[in-house]
Amino acid sequence: MPEATKSITVAFVLASYTHNAPAGMERAIAALAHGLRQLGHRALIITAVKPDPTKDELDEDLIVLGSAEVTFPAADNELREAISSHGQDEIIAADLRALYHRHHVDIAVYVDALWGLGRLAPACPAVRTVLAMHVVGHDQDLTPALERADVVVAPSTTVLDQAHDRGYDSTCWQIVPNALLDDHGAPDARQREALRLGGPMRVLARLGPEKNVRALLDAGHLVDRGIEVVLAEAGFEHAVGAQAAEYRRCAHSTTHLLMGSIRDGGLPWNEVQPWLADAAVVIVPSTKETFGLIALEAMSVGTPVVAFDVDNLPALIDTGAKAGGIVVPRAHGEFGLWGAAEALLDDPVRYAVLSRAAYYRSRDYLPTTVAHDFLKAVR
């Protein structure tokens, strides 16, 4: 186990990782890697996605695992087949061992049992194995991944509770929350008030059914405020073509809004917080959210959040007097989200209080803070 004061090398394994990917796991890992580097450690990211030389900058700490041959976006079963058929799992494990040896890796973090290749995690002398469970995976992946892990970390108690409900013993798992990748400045009080009066309501999400964007748009046809939606495809999906189909449905729903716009392609990571900062309110309509990174990023720039009371969102957003937004009972439906947002924008005093509280709550999730939490959990 590395000494507490020694500079170490941490390798994060995530098959779908690409810079600017519109997914929480990728952005959270990039933020944690950034925090570790700020503390003087080396952080590598091992991916199965080949960088595009015309778009991606050369990054010596981004390593492509060539033996994990899969075309992205991919569904779970496609990736599972690609890494387990014809002895490919043994080839990938050997390549990982070689990479760890070459780069003197101290800690290997498998970011998910399947997509982070945790089910293949090879035993390596002097390398500590960490399984980072952002979601509770399929049993066929999770069972072998847990057998191989020295430490299990999760971003919230929601994951621990869900694992327990599935019959896994999560009592010794550690909580390491997601971190903010950037620390973009928040609008001042005058700018924030101007946004309350005339800024748009904004939604930023990955194209997954659990993000629930289409139902939100269907319920927003009477909202007389500008609504702006940005969606994007991630490197993983539930079934082939599911994300493209979801975008078409959302685009159709947007045509019924009084003042609505939608676009796909997502946002580069360095534009996420500035875009959220220029919103009057950010709505997170998810029905499943094991952490809630978009909500945190909105709060970090002083934009109040409106979300359902599902999974980790209440703990992240609402702590009574220090709430950074409004949590709506799921039973109130998507009309309840719109109603809460409109009521908040009509209340300048409450709006200002929530905006300030949102910003200060987010300070607990800076990269170096989370990196300290991570090192305490895994050493």
Automatic annotation (TrEMBL):
A Pfam family it matches: Glyco_transf_4
InterPro entries xref list: Glyco_trans_4-like_N, Glycosyltransferase_grp1
GO molecular function: glycosyltransferase activity
Domain Glycosyltransferase subfamily 4-like N-terminal: 24-179
Biological processes annotated in GO: carbohydrate derivative biosynthetic process
Keyword Transferase: yes
Record key words, sorted: Glycosyltransferase, Transferase
Highest taxon of source: Bacteria
Protein name: Iron(II)-dependent oxidoreductase
Organism: Actinokineospora terrae
